[in-house]
Design goal:
Blueprint (H helix, E strand, L loop, with lengths): L1 E4 L2 E2 L1 H10 L5 E2 L12 E2 L22 H17 L12 E6 L5 H14 L8 H5 L3 H10 L3 E6 L5 H14 L5 E8 L4 H9 L29 E8 L1 H6 L6 E10 L9 H13 L8 E3 L6 H15 L8 E2 L2 H4 L6 H15 L1 E2 L22 E2 L4 E7 L4 E9 L4
């Protein structure tokens, strides 16, 4: 696994901040946000692309989300004990990257350059750098001819969906190993202005660390952030044969759309039910739910409603938490952040807390593990992601044994 997140670069920093409830949200520094109503976001801090990307690849020409995806991929390969060579990567090696907003920084630069220099002043690197496929292509180019590249875009579930596309290629026998995850870098002036206009970035400018408040009665809305989470997925037999450490096994998955636009997040009811069925699991088997929980009044309450619909009375006895009080909402990277958190929860047998949950919303009356982590036995976890436009995805993962 490789993580580039607002609350930490690398697994150790990411995990430590989740357990401590140390927020990665702060004042915007990537541009002058003084004229925006909301001036906070979850920026990745102290990220130098040259620390992770070879100079000959010209990282400064890449979009920020591509830099994140590439850096997270290199971390994941190192974590998996795999070197990039024809001897260690089987043919073919799929690369599947989920993106939601794509290269907003490059696109904004095109408009800035054309306004300042005229249309002939637009950089020739703008087109290849701004394509939605750029992140997957850049990683695949590094791997070489044995790679195939694909991009998934389904709003916030994009990263989770990309992992499943890769997993299905392995399950079908088309590949033995794949690289997959999600990346987004939406924190640009016009990008953030768009989220603010739709009420999707908190106005709590004076206290940014407390701005993202999943399931809390004092939330106004979520906080937009950025980052990448990338994974090495592997056929179980191959992983065991090379003595790899396995964090988790993907057991089931489903993606659905909301049943009705008037019922936001209702797709989660079907995605949870179908994911459990596809995993051959019942509601009694789930030890923990990693919630989408963006800190939005309507969406938080809706997710709770549909968890109750699926789990019935057992919903009240299952620990549930959202990591977005610490990470903010990094769009396509959100699902991968949840996968990584669940993997480390299996490793340490601990549920991460819901940070900034001081007083639960009256409609959010389940066990949200407020403020402090909880030791418990974890063998099966359900995770949810929901996106703008009504897409919803759920994944069932199990603790890996024997690999």
């Amino acid at each position: 696994m490789g993580i580039v997140a607002p609350n930490g670069i690398g697994l150790d920093a990411f995990w430590d901040s989740l357990l401590a409830g140390r927020s990665g949200i702060g004042p915007i520094t990537l541009f002058d946000a003084s004229d925006l109503k909301s001036r906070i976001a979850g920026e990745v801090k102290d990220f130098d692309p040259f620390d992770y990307i070879e100079p000959e690849l010209r990282p400064k020409r890449m979009a920020r989300h591509t830099q994140f995806a590439y850096a997270a991929t290199m971390m994941a390969l190192e974590d998996a004990g795999i070197e990039v060579s024809p001897h260690t990567l089987p043919s073919p090696t799929p690369v599947v990257v989920g993106v939601s907003t794509s290269a907003l920084d490059i696109i904004e630069r095109v408009f800035t350059d054309s306004a300042r220099k005229g249309v002939d002043g637009v950089s020739p690197i703008a087109l290849p750098a701004s394509k939605p496929q750029a992140a997957a292509n850049t990683i695949a180019d590094r791997i070489g001819a044995m790679a195939q590249a694909a991009t998934v875009s389904s709003a916030c579930p994009s990263g989770l969906d990309a992992v499943i596309v890769a997993a299905n290629l392995i399950r079908s026998g088309e590949a033995e190993l794949a690289i997959a995850g999600g990346a987004d870098a939406p924190i640009t002036k016009h990008g953030l202005a768009s989220f603010i206009a739709t009420g999707l970035n908190s106005l709590r400018n004076g206290d940014p660390a407390k701005a993202s408040r999943p399931f809390d009665s004092d939330k106004d809305t979520g906080v937009i952030s950025e980052g990448a989470g990338m994974f090495i997925l592997e056929n179980r037999d191959r992983a065991m044969a090379r003595g790899a450490k396995a964090y988790l096994e993907i057991a089931g998955y489903a993606a659905q759309r909301d049943r009705d636009p008037a019922l936001p997040a209702s797709g989660l009811m079907d995605s949870m039910s179908f994911a459990l069925a596809n995993a051959g699991r019942g509601t009694v088997d789930v030890d923990y739910i990693s919630a989408y929980g963006p800190g939005h009044p309507v969406l938080d309450a809706a997710e709770v409603r549909y968890i109750k619909e699926v789990f019935g009375s057992r919903a009240y006895s299952i620990p549930i938490s959202s990591i977005k009080g610490v990470t903010g909402n990094p769009l396509a990277a959100g699902g991968p952040f949840q996968i990584a958190a669940c993997a480390l929860s299996f490793r340490d047998q601990v549920v991460v807390p819901t940070t900034n949950l001081d007083q639960p919303d009256a409609r959010c009356d389940l066990d949200f593990v407020p403020q402090h982590p909880r030791k418990t036995r974890l063998d099966c976890i359900l995770m949810n992601v929901r996106g703008l436009g009504g897409s919803a995805s759920s994944m069932v993962v199990e603790r890996a044994n024997g690999a």
